[in-house]
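Priority: medium. Attachment 1 of 2:
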């Protein structure tokens, strides 16, 4: 309990004036509000464990001042606690901390500093105050931290070089290598935009045989039906492109991918030309090599200005030229579905040249128009499947968009050079292939 000013608390004693002082005006009696040796009146000494608060001796154990300090946690009281600390100026608070300083001694001079820590209530306030700055600092740090992370991501983007691993041709591992390129995902997770940026400039590929087998769930691939769960063949083929891009390079699937396919009737009933679906360029393969700078350069027998390593052997989603994808020797896999002529437009108004606009996998449904991913003659047979009653057949065997008509729309794979499309084997791969398609991103 508080002791009235000028009276002695239990166990207190009245101090003697210091030697040399003047009675009635002692030099040592200057702070009657907080001096525990002159509390309320000169010479009134607070007992052991008590503090002088506002001129009254208060037992330190009661934590009276501490309690007030404790009110600090109340928030508003925290401000008051701040005021208390002001009193401690806060050494007053420190004085209050004398309670905390009790173990040290009542010297109070330098103790208030140490006292602040020990003081129960006041100490409690301090952590709260401490939390404030910590919060502020913490808030700033994540921001700054995020900055560096973003900065690091582009380096992660270099991880796309890791994606070069597929060049080894170890197809099974390549996707994992691509996932190594998942650093971009770290990038993406960190900064979506940055993650996306790390996939640049990947914007072209022809679908690999393992990708078509994996997504179709069949060893023979999709055949001429590319709907893949969508309402029409174009939408399904676009979805196939996006999923293969993502599998090859995490984050790349977020781009707007389009299959290089023409149809006799799109969603609005009008013809759709492959050249109108793929943007304006430029386009680059998985390893960053230029395929074409614009449509004018692209829509030629072979892309003009393409990197010399891929101009005559267009690469798959891993950047591997398709003529010898596994390093074991040449394979006959150049036929790529397009439904398109040598200018990039619809080959013919008859839907049998597009397997009923890429919705049929029946062998007899048509003879789809194909381009050659790498130049090659057809070998022993004339090649260029035709429909009953005539039809258009052979074109330039060098043309990546429009070279010949395949034998049929059924799923099928033929990687052995044994001549052109075989009417007795009416599949999309009859003349050397597996029903691959070309994929372009609208932007690099």
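Attachment 2 of 2:
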């Amino acid at each position: 309990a508080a002791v009235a000013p000028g009276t002695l608390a239990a166990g207190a004693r009245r101090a003697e004036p210091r030697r040399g002082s003047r009675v009635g005006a002692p030099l040592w009696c200057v702070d009657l509000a907080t001096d525990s040796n002159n509390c309320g009146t000169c010479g009134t000494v607070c007992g052991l464990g008590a503090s002088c608060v506002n001129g009254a001796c208060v037992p330190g154990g009661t934590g009276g001042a501490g309690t007030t300090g404790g009110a600090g946690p109340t928030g508003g009281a925290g401000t008051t606690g701040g005021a208390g600390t002001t009193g401690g100026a806060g050494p007053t608070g420190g004085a209050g901390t004398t309670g905390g300083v009790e173990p040290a001694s009542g010297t109070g001079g330098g103790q208030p500093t140490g006292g602040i820590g020990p003081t129960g209530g006041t100490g409690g306030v301090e952590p709260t105050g401490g939390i404030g700055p910590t919060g502020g600092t913490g808030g700033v740090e994540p921001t700054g931290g995020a900055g560096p992370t973003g900065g690091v991501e582009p380096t992660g983007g270099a991880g796309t070089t890791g994606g070069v691993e597929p060049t080894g041709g170890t197809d099974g591992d390549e996707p994992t290598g691509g996932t190594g390129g998942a650093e971009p995902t770290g990038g993406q997770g960190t900064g979506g935009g940055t993650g996306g940026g790390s996939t640049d400039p990947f914007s072209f590929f022809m679908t690999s045989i393992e990708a078509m087998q994996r997504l179709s769930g069949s060893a023979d691939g999709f055949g001429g039906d590319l709907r893949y769960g969508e309402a029409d063949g174009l939408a399904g083929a676009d979805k196939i492109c996006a999923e293969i891009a993502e599998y090859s390079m995490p984050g790349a699937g977020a781009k707007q991918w389009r299959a290089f396919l023409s149809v006799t009737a799109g969603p609005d009933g009008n013809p759709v030309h492959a050249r109108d679906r793929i943007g304006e360029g430029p386009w680059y393969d998985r390893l960053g090599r230029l395929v074409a700078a614009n449509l004018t350069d692209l829509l030629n027998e072979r892309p003009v200005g393409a990197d010399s390593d891929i101009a005559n052997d267009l690469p798959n989603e891993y950047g591997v030229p398709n003529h010898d994808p596994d390093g074991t020797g040449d394979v006959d896999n150049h036929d790529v579905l397009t439904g398109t002529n040598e200018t990039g437009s619809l080959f013919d108004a008859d839907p049998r040249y597009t397997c009923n606009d890429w919705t049929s996998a029946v062998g007899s449904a048509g003879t789809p128009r194909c381009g050659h991913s790498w130049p090659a003659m057809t070998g022993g047979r004339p090649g260029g499947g035709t429909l009953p009653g005539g039809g258009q057949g052979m074109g330039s065997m060098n043309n990546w968009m429009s070279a010949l008509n395949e034998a049929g729309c059924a799923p099928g794979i033929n990687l052995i050079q044994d001549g052109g499309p075989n009417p007795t084997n009416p599949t999309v791969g009859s003349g050397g292939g597996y029903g691959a398609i070309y994929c372009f991103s609208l932007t690099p």
